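Why do we care about 3D structure at all? Because function follows from shape, and shape follows, mostly, from sequence. That is the central idea of this module. The next example makes it concrete: a single protein chain, its amino acid sequence, and then its structure expressed as tokens.
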Amino acid sequence: MYSVVVLFFFVTVGILPLSDAEGPTKSRPALPGEPCQTAPLESWTPQEKWVWQHVCEGKIADFNEAKDYGGKLDPKKPKGWPSNRVVRPTFLETILLHDPYRSALTRHGVHIHGAWVKDSLDLSNATLAHPLFLEHCRFESDVNLLKLKSSHLIELGNSTFRGTLNMDSLQLGSSLLMNHAEFSAVILQSAKIGSQLAMIGSKFRGKLNMDSLQVEQSLIMRDGAALAEVRILGAKIGGDLDMAQSKFMSKLEMDRVKVEDILHMKKADFAEVDLGGAKIGGNVLMEGSKFSGALDMSLLQTGSDLYMTDARFARVILRGANIAGTLNMDGSKFSGALDMDVLQVQRSLFMRSADFAQVILIAAMIKGNLEMTGSRFTDTLNMDTLQVGGNLLMHRQAKFAEVVLRGANIAGTLDMDGSKFSGALDMNELQVQRSLFMRSAEFAQVILIAAMIKGNLEMTGSRFTDTLNMDTLQVGGNLFMRSQAKFAEVVLRGANIAGTLDMDGSKFSGALDMNSLQVQRGLFMRNAEFAQVILIAAMIKGNLEMDGSRFTDTLNMSTLQVGKNLFMNRQAKFAEVVLRGGKIGGQLVMDEGKFDGELYMDSLRVEGVLFIRKADFAERVTLTFAEISSNLDLSGSMFASVDMMGTRVRGEFRLGSIKHKGANWHKDSKLILRNTEVGGLEVGGLKDPKQAWPEKGNLELDGFTYGRLGGDMLTQNSSWFREWLARQGSYSPQPYEHLASILLKAGYKDKASDILYASRERERSEAGWPYWAWLTALKFVIGYGYRIYYAFVWVFLLVAIGALVFRRTEEARKNRMPYGIAYSVDMLLPIIKLRERHYDIDLPGWPRYYFYFHKIMGYVLASFLIAGLSGLTR
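And the structure:
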């Protein structure tokens, strides 16, 4: 009996599990071609059993391809989905996480297409042992994959998630594929993806939070993906981060993101983007994209290039960014401020053919070129203390508003050719290691104070509508401001030009201030137009040339120093000119110039010849206390007045020559030669003094000295010289005496005497009554000592008169002196007695008194004769 009971117990116990089980106990995966070895639960719905049957055999459970499930349905269009597509979350959890079903899955994992999951799916903290494919599915509620772990792929492509997809702290050893799907809120915060994370073409209606995400390979969000708010703060992407051709409708936060390779943002639409502090190991590509909100890339670091070409931007911040390659913005449009303060670009920055509003490049460092060719800047471009290792190109019809380049340093060339600057251009203390080109361009106010240009500075053909301030500018090469360039006010005070300063053919409508300018070669101002020009204390080591130019206001060259020649000739036109205290190392040429204002050359020093031939002066010329080391030639010029008081000319002073006509003088013009010293005087070839000297009374010759008479002056007759000297305004003996000494030295004694005689004549004509009487006596008695024979005429006349008087007396008959000549001579001669008997005759009546006069006249004539012979009367 006992044995029967024991047998019944074991049989019952052994049979019970078999009777309670709903499926087979086997849990091994089906072999290829083998049917599923693990039966489904009876509690499962028919469609769940059908799903299990397929996944258990390693097949895809595709509702879209199977019969009786409504055909191919789009999860984005909920209408028309049959209820027999519903798969419960419990079913999915069972086959994914629980044995025997989990163990019965093949290496293909769970692959379901077109399922409809209505209730929340919670796989949080789970570990998946197989790949999971939930494609073309509909999820009506939340899906929780919090801290889910798997070494396999998860594929959610083409599915629709109406609730939150929470993958916070998800850990995958493979890829997470979310392509062409639709999501509400998605949380991937602190997730770790061992391979790729792909969201190609997907749509996110809610926030996508990927803060602190780690992806071993690439994060792909491209090709038509549409996203609302996205956060990737502090994420680490081992490959590319690809957002190309996608649309981000709300803020994209990528602050401190790290991307080992390329960040693709090409042909995409963005709202606000934050890339502050991001580190991108490769390129950042934004070509053709649109950013409707702020793009913050402050402190961004890239391992290669940043491309922002053919794109549209609002406000962009690149403050403190470091671009290891090239930064390219060609063809883009920036409607908001572009802040690149303290930016560093290891190669070049290209901003060509683009549109910009405000741009800030303060203290930026560009190690290659900075190119803005053909671009348009509608607001301030601030490049204060910018450093460029190559060239800065702002040329080819680029357009700028206000530009600031204060303290910038350009290691190559700065080129602004052909561009337009409608606002102020501030280049205070700019340094350019090569050349600065500003040719054929348009500028408003330009500031180049204390700038240093080591090559050429070229402004050829440009137009400046406001002040050009180049105070204390330094140029290592040439400064070209020529070829029909147009300027308003220009300031070159204290500037130093190591080469040539060329203004040929240009127009200066405002003041040109070159006070204390230094030019190491030549200054060319030929065939140009100027208003007021200031060259006070300037130093030009080569030539200063103003040929053919027009000056409508004062040209002030006080204390100017020119190392070679100063040319102001070839029909140049001047208003007032000041050369006071100037020093010219070569020639000063004013031939054929026209001077409408006064010309001041006080204390001028000219080492070569001073030519003023065929020129026209409407006002006074002042050349006082000047020193001309060679000749001074005034031939053929028309003068108002010339004051040369105290001037010294070591060569010849020419008022005409055999080759050139004499100087011409306006009515009432004056020539002042008081205390003037010249080496030679030439008025050759002129027969009439009127051809060279001012009108009578307008010539001052007192103290005028010359060492010789040049040309054919020595051959002129005495009357020519007398006519010249008679033009003095008031008498001075010195001009006559000096001319006489020169003629005497040359061997023209008679001409010398004639001149000295003319001097006494001029003196007598201006003398007062007593002195006039004395001079008249000197004139008629001895010819002022220059014509002694006058005295002998008087002697002959008095002897004849005396003889006539005496022969009419009785004493003449008594003493048998019928002619009385001897008596008359003896009575006329003082002291000497020719015959004692003559003195015994006592004439009565009026003859006695006549011979008293006769004897007195003898003494007078003797006195005059002695004085004349001794030179006392000269």
